[in-house]
Every structure is written in C-alpha cells, then in structure tokens.
Amino acid sequence: MPAELIDGRAIAKKVRADVARRAEKLVARGIQPGLAVVLVGEDPASVVYTTSKGKAAQEAGMYSVNIRLPADTTQSDLLGRVDALNADPRIHGILVQMPLPKHIDADTVIRRIDPAKDVDGFHPVNVGKMLIGERDGFIPCTPAGIQVLLKESGVSTPEKNCVVIGRSNIVGKPMAALMIQDNADANCTVTVCHRHTADLAAHTRAADILIVAAGRPRMVTRDMVKPGAVVIDVGTNRVEDKTAKSGTRLTGDVDFDAVREVASRITPVPGGVGPMTIAMLMANTVRAAEMASERR
C-alpha cells in the first residue's frame, strides 16, 4: 500500500481556526493581535510570501502591517524601523523577511527584534530557550509546524530514531533540538546529517522518522528509506517542467512517487509542510499578544 498522505493544508486549517478563536477572545478584551511583516527589496518569492502572511493575519482577525522598503535601504534605516515596531504597542509580532540584500547583516537585524515580538523564533534568546526546553519563548515556525503535523497524524515519537537532513538555523538545527526534548511529542534519538555526512543512506535507512530539509530536489530516493518510515519533506525546489504553463514546477527534496511506495506516511510538496509554516506564524503571533496582555 502506498504511504498515507499527511495533509498539511487540512491540519493548517485547524491551527488557523484555533488562532482565530484566540484572537477573537483577545479582541473582546480590547486587544487586537498585531503582526508587522517587513520586506526589503522586490524578490518575487519574498513578495508572495509576505503578501500571504499579511492576508493570513487579516483572515485571523489580526491587525496586519506590511512594510515594503526599497532594496537600497540602509541597515541603519532598517534597524530604525525595527526599533519603531518594538516600541509600538499595537504590534505583537515582527517578521523581517529573509533573505535581505547583501549590504544588510541579517544577524544584526534579528538581534534587534524584541525577543517578546520575535514570532519567527530566530532571536538568540528564543533559540536558547528552545534548546534548554523552556516554553516561554517562540519556536521557529517550520519545525514547530512539523511537530504539529506528526502529532495530528497520529505519529508516536518517543523511542523513535529521527534523522534530520540539513543543519540550517531555520529548520535543521531547531528541528533536532525539538525532537530530542523530554516530552510526549519528542523523546527521539536524533541524528543530524549534512553535506559532509559519510554514507548518508546508512543513516537514513535507520530512521523511523525522516525529516528532509537539504534544498536539493529529489535527493532522497526509495532505497534510502526504511520500510514503514514517516517521511517529512521540507524541500521547495523549482525544477524545469516543459508540460507546465510556467515552464517549472515545485518539487521536494524527496523522490515522492518512489518513496511513497515504501513509507507509511509522507508529506506532499506542495501541500505538506508549507501551509504549516504560515499557520504557526499566526499561532506565535496570537501567543505573543496573549503574553503581552498578561504583562499588563
């Protein structure tokens, strides 16, 4: 039997419905959760992402601010914008869309965001809290969404071997940190693989849960996957497809059709992890507003 599809769109819809209910409760108390999304430049993919994030916030009943700055914006000017948003009581979440132009240091910008408004979960304070297992910070949206996908799909994680391919600060590292925590949604034995890993397939074939975030289209093939494994494909790669109207199509890091024949569950691309990332951004934002209301 081919693997069961993990429907990210359906699970994301549930998360966003919960976010809308929580936002409605806050609004009834005179507090409207606010999200500011800052985009520097006109990268086409980033324009699409920021627009969709702003739309999702509005649909959840949030106050949404979409700030677009020219590509030649100085680092000093961008930091000034971040400072203003940090001081704005209407804004509970701040997201600066990556990548930034080369003349702006992303780490400097991330560190300037108030950790209490860092709904991307990239500030060192929030990264540190996640690593030691504290729950009063923010977890990066994609890894957080993957945990929800696993839980909602009925995947039991304790005592499982979890292999993560990729070690980025956005997905790979935080994913490993989450799956090794001592709680019912983790408690895995975690292996992190990357481009210097020798005999990658030997590691992936030992995985009960395989999470692939390498950025290489269809790199994980059928022979690399343990029969019955749960496969989470984080990849979003544009590949040539002459049959498509645009000339390209979106594909993951996993050879989906082949791997589906051996896995027990698998996320499609698109429609798997992607919708969860925006859903968890909304969840982080409404939580930031709830936490701010408690500090009043």
Structural class: alpha/beta
* Contiguous runs where pLDDT drops below 50 for at least 5 residues: none
Compute the number of helices. Answer: 10
Globular, elongated, flat, extended or rod-shaped: what is the shape? globular
Task: Characterize the largest beta sheet: strand count, sense, and whether it forms a barrel.
Answer: 6 strands, parallel
Radius of gyration: 19 Å
Element pattern in H and E? EHEHEHEHHHEHEHEEEEHEH
Write out the strand line-up for the largest beta sheet, numbering strands in chain order.
1-11-8-7-5-6
Helical proportion? 25-40%
Note the gap between the termini.
Answer: 55 Å
Q: Assembly type of the shown chains? A: single chain
Can you give the mean pLDDT?
96
**Strand fraction:** 15-25%
Structure description:
Helices cover 40% and strands 16% of the residues. It is an alpha/beta fold and 296 residues long. A six-stranded parallel β-sheet has the order 1-11-8-7-5-6.
